[in-house]
């Protein structure tokens, strides 16, 4: 890369073909003859013009040419895709049967993502040209290929670790979110279903329409309130049961600890869709073993599947059965970590078992498990499996479009796949995720995990 | 003193009563479905927990009947589960390690973004997955399904593993670096082996996940020979509930047993790994 063998001098190619000798060795203490921001400006400008040009100017040939080739390849390979995508996301297609609005929308979103990636890389290229230019302004040599490689694998190591996951995450997690957001502002439903019909942008009319129609109003409010009750009660009880059992097993005098822990963890080990379907059979109004048993002990049959109130009770019971083992395992781990000194000190002061639980165990366990507990609440908020598999959100309730036990997520599921109201489904999804994210964000901020951040270096 | 011991004895008795009650409640549905799988009939309602004429004909049917895809379902599911578990562990461990030990642009907000991302309800995403896989010609392939599984698990599990890495004393990797170990050596030879408990937990989570999921494969895998166990089993009872319930029971027992065995085998990792990973996060 350098034209002279000595380390003191290097020849640089500048402007209209003239050669200038620039001293680069610090020992010579010679100032560069150009203004001190010369190289960095020029390299950055060239890189803005065409990717890699600044690197070539900086005489980092390999880097410069691979950037250049990368840019050309990116443009050639994806020009049509980006072009159609950007046209598609704006117009959503113009000819029915020929243009598939939803595919165009998706392609448009991917195009935007690719462009953002491209621009990000472009920005890095400019910054790199600027930095190397600055090094040259200071009279240092630009890093060689080997040095660059070492830089990437050393300083860039965390980026290398994160990149594969991040790329996958962008397409598998971020893309669906953007897609949902976009759909919420279109009229994509059964009557505007491509390829036979085109889909159009409709602004906020889904949100407005949803809150104006009384059928929807009723459904939304009743579904929303049951979702809140479901989330709070199911999660709190499953956690409480897990904690209580963990404390009971952890007690000093209790024997067969391992047996109890092993057996009580079993519901977690059975695939949940199997257990839910089994419960759905067990709670059958007429023939299910639960009602048979209740009859035998003289309680009588309970309308588990046909009365909304009893279905809700059954659902809560099922979810507690499914959920408590996770809390049990978690709390058992935390309890093992609590020093016994605390309890001994409390006993010296004459604390009762309940006081010890209330003042020592509970705060420590809650403190330690708060982040997980919050994700548990979020999990139940979105717990489609239990509600949908147990009774499909039934029994039906007159005067609303959702069933008596539908939570938001199952309602959205039905809107999407049964009635093909994709636009409303997306709008409801947006509202519920906003609520969920804001509440969780607020809760997370309060937990210690984030105050303790940045213990690093 | 004597009074105290009476109280604690009563407390102990109450404890055992509660624990035994919970054991019964826990085991009842499991025993019930095992019993159902040995019932001669096909209906849910004629079956009893201890069948009078126990039979293994449902198991035999699953494996021998020409109408049964059970064997290929089982193979597909094992394949998807294994690949998903390995890929997920690689992706998650790398990401989590970077979050735990390095400073880089976006680190601070990255973690909380992960937490929020995982809360986005998955239903509408199903449509997006379909469109996305359609675009890259991965519909009806196991690869497409695995990529989605491996991508969506990143946020939650990164959190768990990052929390566990945080509990490993920093002095260990710093000492290794002073001795001249490179980034890769520290990561693969020192940190990963130390994080074995939480790696086991993540591997297990991702091994089990495809076995219980029927929503996504139902949408993505369209041909019957590509189906997974969960979709296939769900089909047994979804079409005509009760008609094939005992067959469903037999098929379920056969997936639940290996998972449960695996689970109990790795149980010691749960208590240590999960507690450390989940709580320090």
From TrEMBL, chain B:
Alphabetized Gene3D superfamilies for the sequence: MetI-like
Membrane topology listed for this record: Multi-pass membrane protein
Annotated TM spans: 12-34, 80-99, 111-133, 145-165, 186-208, 248-266
Family: Belongs to the binding-protein-dependent transport system permease family.
Protein name per Swiss-Prot or TrEMBL: Maltose ABC transporter permease
Chain ranges of the ABC transmembrane type-1 domain: 74-266
Primary location: membrane
Species per Swiss-Prot/TrEMBL record: Kroppenstedtia guangzhouensis
Location(s), subcellular: Cell membrane
Keyword terms of this UniProt record: Cell membrane, Membrane, Transmembrane, Transmembrane helix, Transport
């Amino acid at each position: 890369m350098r034209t002279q063998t000595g380390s003191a001098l290097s020849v640089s190619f500048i402007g209209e073909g003239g050669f200038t000798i620039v001293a680069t060795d610090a020992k010579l203490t010679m100032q560069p003859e150009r203004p001190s921001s010369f190289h960095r400006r020029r390299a950055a400008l060239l890189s803005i013009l065409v990717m890699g040009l600044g690197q070539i100017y900086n005489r980092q040939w390999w880097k410069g040419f691979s950037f250049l080739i990368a840019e050309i390849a990116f443009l050639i390979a994806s020009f049509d895709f980006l072009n159609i995508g950007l046209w598609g996301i704006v117009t959503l297609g113009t000819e029915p049967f020929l243009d598939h609005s939803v595919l165009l929308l998706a392609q448009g979103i991917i195009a935007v993502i690719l462009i953002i990636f491209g621009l990000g890389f472009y920005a890095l290229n400019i910054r790199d040209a600027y930095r190397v230019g600055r090094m040259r302004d200071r009279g240092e040599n630009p890093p060689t290929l080997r040095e660059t490689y070492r830089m990437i694998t050393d300083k860039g190591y965390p980026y290398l670790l994160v990149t594969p996951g991040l790329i996958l995450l962008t397409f598998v997690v971020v893309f669906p979110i953007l897609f949902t957001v976009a759909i919420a502002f279109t009229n994509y439903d059964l009557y505007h279903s491509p390829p036979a019909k085109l889909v159009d942008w409709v602004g906020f009319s889904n949100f407005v329409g949803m809150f104006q129609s009384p059928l929807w109003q009723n459904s939304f409010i009743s579904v929303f309130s049951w979702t809140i009750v479901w989330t709070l009660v199911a999660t709190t009880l499953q956690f409480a049961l897990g904690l209580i059992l963990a404390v009971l097993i952890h007690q000093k005098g209790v024997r067969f600890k391992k047996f109890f822990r092993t057996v009580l963890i079993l519901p977690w080990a059975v695939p949940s869709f199997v257990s839910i379907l089994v419960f759905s059979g067990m709670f059958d109004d007429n023939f299910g073993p639960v009602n048979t048993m209740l009859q035998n002990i003289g309680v009588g049959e309970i309308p588990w599947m046909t009365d909304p109130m009893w279905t809700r009770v059954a659902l809560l019971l099922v979810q507690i059965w499914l959920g408590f083992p996770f809390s049990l395992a978690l709390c058992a781990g935390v309890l093992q970590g609590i020093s016994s000194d605390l309890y001994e000190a409390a006993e010296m002061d004459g604390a009762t078992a309940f006081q010890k639980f209330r003042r020592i165990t509970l705060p420590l366990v809650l403190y330690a498990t708060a982040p997980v507990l919050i994700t548990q609440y979020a999990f139940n908020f979105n717990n489609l499996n239990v509600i949908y598999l147990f009774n499909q959100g039934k029994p039906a309730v007159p005067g609303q479009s959702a069933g008596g036990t539908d939570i938001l997520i199952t309602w959205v599921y039905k809107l999407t796949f049964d009635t093909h109201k994709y636009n409303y489904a997306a709008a409801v999804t947006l509202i519920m995720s906003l609520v969920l994210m804001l509440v969780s964000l607020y809760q997370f901020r309060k937990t210690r995990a984030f105050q303790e951040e940045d213990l690093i270096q | 003193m004597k009074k105290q011991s009476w109280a604690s004895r009563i407390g102990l008795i109450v404890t055992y009563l509660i624990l035994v009650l919970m054991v019964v409640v826990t085991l009842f549905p499991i025993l019930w479905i095992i019993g159902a799988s040995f019932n001669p009939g096909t209906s849910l309602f004629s079956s009893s927990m201890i069948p009078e004429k126990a039979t293994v004909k449902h198991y035999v049917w699953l494996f021998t009947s020409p109408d049964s895809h059970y064997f290929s379902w089982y193979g597909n599911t094992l394949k998807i589960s294994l690949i998903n578990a390995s890929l997920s562990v690689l992706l998650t461990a790398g990401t989590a390690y970077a979050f735990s030990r390095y400073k880089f642009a976006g680190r601070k907000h990255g973690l909380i973004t992960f937490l929020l991302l995982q809360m986005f309800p998955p239903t509408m995403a199903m449509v997006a997955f379909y469109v996305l896989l359609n675009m890259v010609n991965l519909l009806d392939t196991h690869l497409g399904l695995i990529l989605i599984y491996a991508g969506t698990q990143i946020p939650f599990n990164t959190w768990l593993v990052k929390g566990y890495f945080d509990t490993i004393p920093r002095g260990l990797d710093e000492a290794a670096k002073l001795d001249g170990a490179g980034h890769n050596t520290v990561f693969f030879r020192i940190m990963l082996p130390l994080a074995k408990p939480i790696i086991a937990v993540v591997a297990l989570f991702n091994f089990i996940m495809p076995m219980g999921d029927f929503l996504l494969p139902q949408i993505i895998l369209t041909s019957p020979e590509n189906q997974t166990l969960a979709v296939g089993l769900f089909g047994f009872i979804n079409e005509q509930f009760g008609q094939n319930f005992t067959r469903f029971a037999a098929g379920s027992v056969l997936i639940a047993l290996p998972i449960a065995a695996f689970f109990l085998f790795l149980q010691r990792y749960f208590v240590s790994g999960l507690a450390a990973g989940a709580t320090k996060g």
